[in-house]
UniProtKB/TrEMBL annotation:
Residues 5-121 form the MTTase N-terminal domain. Monomer. PROSITE patterns: MTTASE_N, MTTASE_RADICAL, RADICAL_SAM, TRAM. PANTHER family: CDK5 REGULATORY SUBUNIT-ASSOCIATED PROTEIN 1, MITOCHONDRIAL TRNA METHYLTHIOTRANSFERASE CDK5RAP1. Transmembrane segments: none annotated. This is tRNA-2-methylthio-N(6)-dimethylallyladenosine synthase. [4Fe-4S] cluster 1 binds at C14, C50, C84.
Length: 440
């Protein structure tokens, strides 16, 4: 038998890319590749890229530059670019970096075996189509390897919302939901392989409306069906849009036993004027109403969000409105970004704010968020939570895992295994994690 070829994949961007990278490794597994953790010995290097902000795309080019030496040493090494930069700039990448052999967009991963074969025959391969077929269905070549306790499962891809700053509708295409039965089969398979927690993914996951028994299924219906799978202990989903936060989904947060009390619900800005210019189709008030309903359904819900500062025409007053909505919403986690001009999006054409104004606002916003994050974490002390253990900690006898609210928790205890779900009393709040003790 010939030696397996070695595949190194480097993943950037969102969780959907993490999921896609797993699927790409599986697709190339059928071509005799095994995945390795460093690029040095690789026969193929794949960069699974992100285009969301300018820096993200620039990283790809500098990373490619680092492989020049490897490629010179080993002419058989194939270098591929996948993901959202591949979709947006495929041909330019081929021009700018002649060392790239393969470019594949996010909707064409099931064609990787053919594309790889093409590169082996000395040709360049480029595929940035939006094919009709369901790439995940074609990627059925799944080895039944044992898995860790947590997994991602993409249920929906693409976006039709066209926020004025965002490239996703262009790189990922129109919104498509996978059929419910296929998702449930994949979930059962993951559970058989050791998975205890599944995070359902989509660029707009709560807009999910997949074909299922008896018609169209909502995300809430899908979650309830997952709730019935024995051995699956926890369900999460991300990322959601406020306008798709339907009543059945809000209610599920109060009643569905396996749905965790955590929700990532980005609002981006607290100013209605800016929200309108962003084409978000919601107001600050309508967002706060949803939060109120969610907390009525599930009082201990930990909220997380995304914010953009320095969007074109954002005034100090607009920015203050963003700080106000942060104060009103009270986040357990939040991710904040300086607005980054994306060519081809509507906001790129507008008057841009100076960099120092953006920097200053980002700092002030992050100071507030850090305060809230710390307060939310400290408030867990004395409480009893579920913890799904994932791996040994830094100290001997220590195990770490995630709480129901997604806080990192470490516990000193004998006999705990990855995959164990235990009740834990939180005893201390550290810088980035909580310490707890098993509840007998
Ligand atoms: N679909 C998700 C988010 C996708 S992108 C949603 O609608 O919420 C993840 C985050 O990146 C966004 O929430 C936004 O805060 C940020 N982002 C997207 N485009 C950006 C840009 N051009 N500049 C800065 N941040 C951006
Ligand atoms: Fe981008 Fe807006 Fe779609 Fe989210 S909803 S992916 S921010 S266009
Ligand atoms: Fe980035 Fe594409 Fe995800 S642009 S955030 S990898 S959908």
């Amino acid at each position: 038998m010939s030696e397996p070829k070695k595949l190194y994949i480097k993943t950037y961007g969102c969780q959907m890319n993490v999921y896609d990278s797993e699927r790409m490794a599986e697709a190339l597994g059928g071509q005799g590749y095994v995945e390795i953790q460093t690029p040095d010995d690789a026969d193929m290097i794949l960069l699974n890229t992100c285009h969301i902000r300018e820096k993200a795309a620039e990283k790809v080019y500098s990373e490619l530059g680092r492989y020049k030496g490897l490629k010179a040493e080993k002419p058989d090494l194939k270098i591929g670019v996948a993901g959202c930069v591949a979709q947006a700039e495929g041909e330019e990448i081929m021009r700018r970096q002649p060392m790239v052999d393969l470019v594949v967009g996010p909707q064409s991963y099931h064609r990787l075996p053919e594309l790889e074969a093409k590169t082996r025959s000395g040709e360049k391969a480029l595929d940035t189509d939006f094919p009709e077929e369901d790439k995940f269905e074609v990627l059925k070549n799944r080895p039944k390897a044992k898995r860790g306790p947590t997994a991602f499962l993409t249920v929906q891809e693409g976006c039709d919302k066209f926020c004025a700053f965002c490239v996703v509708p262009y790189t990922r295409g129109a919104e498509v939901s996978r059929p419910a039965a296929r998702i449930l089969t994949e979930a059962r398979d993951l559970v058989e392989r050791g998975v205890r927690e599944i995070t359902l993914l989509g660029q707009n996951v709560n807009a999910y409306h997949g074909a299922g028994e008896g018609g169209d299924w909502s995300l809430a219906r899908l979650i309830w069906a997952l709730n019935d799978i024995d051995g699956l202990e926890r369900i999460r989903f991300t990322t959601s849009h406020p306008n798709d936060m339907t009543d059945d989904l809000i209610e599920a947060h109060g009643t569905c036993p396996k749905l965790m009390p955590y929700l990532h619900l980005p609002v981006q800005s607290g100013s209605d004027r800016i929200l309108k210019r962003m084409n978000r189709q919601h107001t600050a008030e309508s967002y706060l109403v949803i939060i109120e309903k969610l907390r009525a359904a599930r009082p201990d819900l930990l909220l997380s969000g995304d914010f953009i500062v320095g969007f074109p025409e954002e005034t100090e007053e607009d920015f203050q409105a963003t700080l106000d909505i942060i104060r009103a919403s009270n986040y357990g986690y939040a991710y904040s970004f300086k607005y980054s001009t994306r060519p081809g999006t509507p906001a790129a054409e507008r008057d841009q704010l100076p960099e120092d104004v953006k920097d200053d606002r980002l700092q002030r916003l992050q100071a507030l968020i850090t305060e809230q994050q710390k307060a939310a974490q400290d408030a867990m002390v004395g409480k009893e939570v579920g913890v799904l253990f994932e791996k040994p900690g830094r100290l001997p006898g220590q195990m770490v895992g995630k709480s129901d609210h997604l806080h990192a928790v470490h516990v000193q205890a004998d006999g705990l295994q990855p995959g164990n779900l235990r009740r834990v009393r939180i005893i201390e709040s550290g810088r980035n994690s909580l310490a707890g003790a098993l509840v007998e």
